[in-house]
Amino acid sequence: MFVHLTSSFSPRKSYDVCIVGTGPAGMTLALKLRAAGLSVFLAEGGEMEYSDDSQENYLGKVVGDPYFDLDVARLRYFGGTSNHWGGMCRPLEDRDFEGKKVSPITEWPIRKQDLDPFLPEAREVLEISENPPDTPFDADGNLRRVHFVFSPPVRFAEKYEEQIANDSGLDTCLNCNATAIDYRDGRIASVHFENYLGHSIDVSAKAFVLACGGIENSRLLLHWNRKLNKILGGGDTVGRYWMEHPTQTVGGVVFCEGFQLPDDHVSTPYSRHRLYLAPSSDFIEKNNILNCRVRLDRLPGESCEAPSWIKSLLGLEPKRQVEMNWVRTSSEQEPVESNRVALGEEKDRFGIPRPVLHWRRSELDRKTFRSVALAIGKYFAGGQVGRLKLDDWVLSEELKFSCDGGGHCPGGYHHTGGTRMAHSSASGVVDPNCRVFGTKNLYVAGSSVFPSAGYCNPTMSIVQISLRLGDHLAAILTKTANLDGVRQPKRETAAATE
Amino acid sequence: MVWNDRRYKFQWRAEPARLGVCAKAPITSSGIGRIESDPAGAVLIRACRRSFLRGALLGLAAFALPVKFAKTEDSTIIVIDGWIISLEDLIRSNKKL
Predict the structure, then answer these.
(1) Alpha carbon A148 to chain centroid, angstroms
(2) Using a CB-CB distance cutoff of 8 angstroms, which residues of chain A are in contact with residue B45?
């Protein structure tokens, strides 16, 4: 049911699990736990609908490469960023979980097989079918054709509002902002929540989960670490290895007379036809690059002037207007320690420092999409299909990126990393079960736990990981019937304000 | 669903401005191409002049043509003015010049 943070509201003495955030991660997890019979407190910082008051808490700074304003790349109200999600789904690939020779830190402590059991349930949540299998694309074995499937897209708020409203075991509180924690001997005893009117509550639970998104999870942990002079999440890794999917238009293709590009017949608000290609494992290994996808967008009616020598090669009349098909890449980003979420000087209304996002793309990031673009160009040039023109900056010797082609440049609004999953606190913030190192009952859900992000849109993997975390929490909380009886050590409180 | 243009800076509608990108490097005068080795292993032939193909071939000759041909037949990618073409393209086009 929905509850309101007012002076008259009293939360239960203790919940099984308290979840902060109602996006795909938080809501999926809450419903999974409810299905296991556990009591849940679900907190949303925003309201039922968008409001500037709430969104304003997402302001922050970006240092490094040009990036979206932080308050436009995400949404802070019930349902979270699913409220403007595009719906593209594809699970991470086997190779995404492995350490690459060129960047060993891309390795996950779990494998795809650990998430596969949750695929059918994730598909139900997202209302999608199975992704068709990949197929080889070129004779050289450099490229494969990959397929995404499209969710309607599911808006989590709309889909689950009624179910949540009728569930007495799920207290969902809006305008409920986590500001401080009561930390005792490695255990979180309660989280302090405040609203915009000055009301506040402390919520106790056996386990707590941060599911606030790929920037906020890091920001809150960094803030609480600073207040408590503790190292939740181990060493100096919190906020680091933050990633996006570097995205750009790298050029365009002009096809030969009469050639029809195979496509997935997908019609979306952004494009009528798309073909997705990705490098083969052999190509990735041989070229020492990361994973990447290339999208060919056919946009009927948009034409350009190709030089006459190209038209001649393609068998096109010299004066004919030709159709340009944009080639866009979206790739795995190299996890780099210096790409991170940090705390800035400025504070939000609750006294929590606003985030400063340090983000730069590397030479490996450019090499990845350039190598794949060249392979696609070679494929086109090898037959009577078409010819690819790369934009100048793609081939420039200096490290250069450009957003001249528009679209989703320079990223996909895919905030990943910052609380990366690892075997130990030396290289990560959470363990393979998403539990924060140095704590007994604090967990993180969402793409912030990704040690590397492949090229696939993250929502599907977020849902899978949340379902897996739900299974894990249900198992340990069911076994340990009552964790409230733990000894009560000296109390340390992280207040929101100085 | 929120598609607030201000908050969701989707640049799709700005894209028609990119039309004409192909003509960005006009072929207007003659010149000699030059060959560069790309870090990814490709051979890039840069020439954006009217007789660029002839120039490129002259460039190939200047840089030991047979070796470059052998490499091209193997896995080399030829890029002229950003256009990725095959060796056959190069020869065919040169013949027409």
Answers:
(1) 16
(2) none
